[in-house]
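#structure-requests
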Amino acid sequence: MRKDLLHAVRGLWQSPVFALTAILTIALGIGASTAIFSVANAVLLRPLPYKAPDRLVLPWVEMRARHILDGTFSVEGFIDLRTGASMFEDLGALFTFRGATPAENGTLEQVSFGLVTPNFFRLLGARVRLGRDFIDADGLPQPPADPAARGGQAPQRIPAISILSYEYWQRRYGSDPSVVGRTINGALIVGVLEPNFELLFPPSANIERTPEIWTALRLAYDQSQRHSIGFHLVGRLKPGATIEQAQSQAERFAAEERRIDLIERAADYHVRLEPMHKDLVAEVRPTILALMGAVIFLLLIACVNVANLLMVRSSLRERELSVRTALGASRWRLMRQMLAESVVIAGCGTLVGLGLARVGIHQLIVMGPTNLPRLGSIAIDPVVLAFSAAAGLVAAAIFGVIPALRASRPDVMQVLRCSGRTASLGGGRVLRNAAVVIEVALSFVLLIGSGLMFRSFVALQHIDPGYDPRGVLTFLLAGGRGKTPAERAAFAHDLQGRLAAMPGVQAVSAAVPFPWTGDSILCAGERKRRRQIRANSRRPIARRCCRVTSRR
């Protein structure tokens, strides 16, 4: 086989135009298919980087009478579900937001916070590099704030417990191991996470993927706060439990909630369980599969093109093959020689295609949509390399077998009697015509799909969004100055006046939450719950958004 490969390389070297055309054609098909497969592998095929990911589920609240299908839970709803649902091996809650914390030089810096139940990292299998993980005692509720309930003495508050992300520990503290035991925003730092830990939730959940400061939630049951929602839940099913069994039990739990609560009964309260990985990729799965199908068609078109070139090349070499047959070369010997050329072309095309795929992956990461999960993990890993090698072998088989079969059966007497090569070119007319028909059919499918996508893109560009985005500048203000609501309101009013006085500014507005971010509108109970969380954590955080319209 080595001699056949060397002979194939010499033959292709003598026909550089043919070799370069065939290699680039295959490289385009393999490069495109490898780039899209790397996305499919990272997003759809690779398991979640958590402990027992196949048993992780995301519970969602459905209020069908209010057309809410992806609602969040209240503290009381989470506690009821955790204590009353036996299908979970473990259940955790989290709430993320952006806020401000004093930097080393005294200035405020904006960071992302994650409020989680103490079992959250154990639930997902996240490891702590430095210090310790949260323990159950970190989630004990604060004592009653009413001094009368404690014999007239003011209650002593329990300090909040925090864990830093590895990246934040490096950036702010320079990987100083003595950070454990310090305080940040009044919270005691007890540990540092392992690097690259992120929360993988559906984009519509509006979750901070990489919180920098994690704080243990101190949850107290208060029936009056049942309708103050905002917590996302993650659960792990017990070994052997199916999602159908768990959903049936969740329905019984929701029915009991509707029975005891009038508002939830009026809203038609339900709980839906979704496998975590399936829910994460639900929005992008159809698009990725469609792209994967398109690049497979593109690879097939490339194979048909190269097969056509090889059949023409074998027709031109019929005299040579006939002479070799007359000298005693067997049919398998001729087939092996032709297949060796196909393997060389496919191998070179695969190597060039991997280079094109690397460039394509880089562009996908730079230009990728924000709702594409695990975008940063897309890379050419061993699985992608195996796919590329398999694609190259399959391509070599597709475009090499038929020309090899035809070239291995030359009509020796007819070819040797012919004085020219024109007669030889007609021998494979049926195969070439069939290849052209297949190529046109596949191209027609791709053309229709591309046309439909372009038509959808044009239609989206002509949809009136209801506002004029030209000249609109936006920013998020976290950590509003002032301890009391009146002080914070005065600060916001002063800031709005300063912005309106800037040259070129026509109008200034503010909104909580920021429009079109996927967050839910805050009700009075939700605002009260967030105020309580801020008070318990001793973090005077106020989220505000200002929209600035400028002529520039």
